[in-house]
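REQUEST ID: PR-0412
SUBMITTED BY: lab tech R.K.
PRIORITY: routine
TASK: structure prediction, single protein chain
INPUT:
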Amino acid sequence: YFGFIYPVIFILLAVTVSRINKYLAIFIIVGLMGLSLYSNQFRWLPPKQLLTTQQINKSIIDKSNGEAFNFALLAKMNYDPGYLYYLSENKNYFHLKDLITDQLFVVCEPFQIDCNPINNPEWGIAAFGWAKIDSQWEIGDIKIFRLIHNPTGN
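STATUS: complete
OUTPUT:
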């Protein structure tokens, strides 16, 4: 929305620099360039999201023991297509719309959310029905739960 304001910043900087001392102007410009380089994103390692997604999917497939399974994601700022892309290559993965299996794997990306898959209102978990946590493990900061049916609710 404010794309038209972007050139105004440079115009104001140019007007300010033209009205002050030459050495002070050079100092300000070099300082701004240094600040820009200091906060450059290339200074940090990449988050390796693709590699992490592949590791999580491999872990889920290994823990499913070759049996059919469903998948759900609990995250505030991420979506499940990255996970589903790799899981769909596995013949044992079923979408909850197609088949409710005996096990549900829940990936919980815990940034800014409570990682409690039991009785969670998320559609992918609620559609699975009453469940209990059979096992739980972590890859990096991401928690993975294996839920199985619990018809008695105990």
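NOTES: Residues 3-43 form one domain.
REVIEWED BY: pending
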